[in-house]
Amino acid sequence: MEKSRFTSSEFSVTDHSVYLDTPSNGLMSNTVRKWREFHEERIYRFGRDEVFRESDPLEQTRREVASFFDAPAKGVVLLPNFSFGMKVLTGGLDKRMKVLLLEDDYPSVNWPFEAGGFKALVKARVNNDPEDLIREYLHRHKPDIFAFSLVQYTDGLLMGPEFTKTLKEEFPDLIIVADGTQYCGTYSLSFVDSGIDVLGASGYKWLMAGYGNGFMCFSDRMHSLLYPWSLQLPPRTEPFLKGKNHLTNHFEPGHLDTLAAGSLGAALRFLDETPEAKREEKLKRLSEHAHKLYAERGLLQPRIAHRKSHSTIFSLPDSAVIRQRFDAHNIAYSVRKGRVRIGFHLYNHLNDVEIVAELAGYVDDF
């Protein structure tokens, strides 16, 4: 039987707590920590890291992002975080475009469009049938851009790449911008097959890459739609800028933190040591078990309880009783939008799902 990589030897926090706060901050593996220590020690001792001089960690990480998410390498940029990427993205789009957003989506998705000077913004309030609602808005308002999170950060509502693929088939001219921060690192995603035009994510949650890193992947059509006025500028001639393309010129200005970006690459390699199908199988098993138990107890909101497929994030009623019980049993969680938010990752187990159900009880209990 193949030994799991997602044990307490890699994630020491799980020795003394039930860590369910990945939606806020994923745990860093011992493997990634050792990678960082090795390179930080070399910089401390020698003033620079000769390994980085021999093999560019930024280019290596771009290739690893492209491979992990099945994206064209020329369309991958590295970021300090997703929010930075969204500000650069909206700064380079035609402000005459009409944009469809979702109410209460992650602020870093909506605010750059709201503050970016776009002439027409439409917001849809998500109901119990979000996919049908979004199609209705697309038909009625005919936006140029639809920007949203694949997984809603408050309650884990999942509208994944299967949905975006059907949207692109139905609305081929639509620019689909997807926040994958609460999705990437959980279920599979082939960027080239998803219909998504811009996929972005920070690395510190489900990718378990630590702080200060992220990425965006772009479809071919986006190269000419972003900052089109700069396409006519002469090529950069400085030796340290010659390798940049149109996208990296805008999204990677100045220097990037090689340790932070390299940590993203190290985290992707760590994840890849376990076949994607096995990772997804475990997470779906955890999600399905949790969804069933919590729905039976009336703990889930109606728009989540009836869903056939769900993410790895769950939102439970916020009561002093639940929080006191969780605290007493060393369960790490967060409170978002007046509810207790938890998430199950690869270092969690079915027993963790059941502990939550036992401690939370039934909705009528509080």
Tell me how many strands there are: 12
Cα shape: globular
Mean pLDDT: 94
CATH architecture of the largest domain: 3-Layer(aba) Sandwich
Helix and strand element order: EHHHEHEHEHEHEHEEHHHHHEHEEEH
List segments where confidence is low: pLDDT < 50 over at least 5 consecutive residues.
Answer: none
Largest sheet: 7 strands, mixed
CATH class term of the largest domain: Alpha Beta
How many domain regions? 2
Short overview:
With 366 residues, the protein is an alpha/beta fold. Helix content is 40%, strand content 14%.
What does this structure look like?
The chain has 366 residues and is of the alpha/beta class. It folds into two domains: 12-27 and 275-365, Alpha-Beta Complex (Aspartate Aminotransferase, domain 1); 34-272, Type I PLP-dependent aspartate aminotransferase-like (Major domain) (Aspartate Aminotransferase, domain 2), CATH 3.40.640.10. It has 15 helices and twelve strands. The protein has helices spanning 30-46, 50-54, 57-68, 82-91, 107-114, 130-141, 161-170, 191-194, 222-225, 246-251, 258-272, 276-296, 302-305, 320-328, 350-360, and strands at 18-19, 76-79, 98-102, 120-124, 145-149, 175-179, 198-202, 214-218, 313-317, 331-332, 334-336, 339-343. The strands form three sheets. Strands 2-8-7-6-5-3-4 form a seven-stranded mixed β-sheet, with helices on both faces. Strands 9-12-11 form a three-stranded antiparallel β-sheet, covered by helices on one side. A two-stranded parallel ribbon has the order 1-10. β3, α5 (107-114) and β4 form a beta-alpha-beta unit. α1 (30-46) runs antiparallel to α11 (258-272), α4 runs parallel beside α5 and α12 (276-296) packs parallel to α15. The termini are far apart.
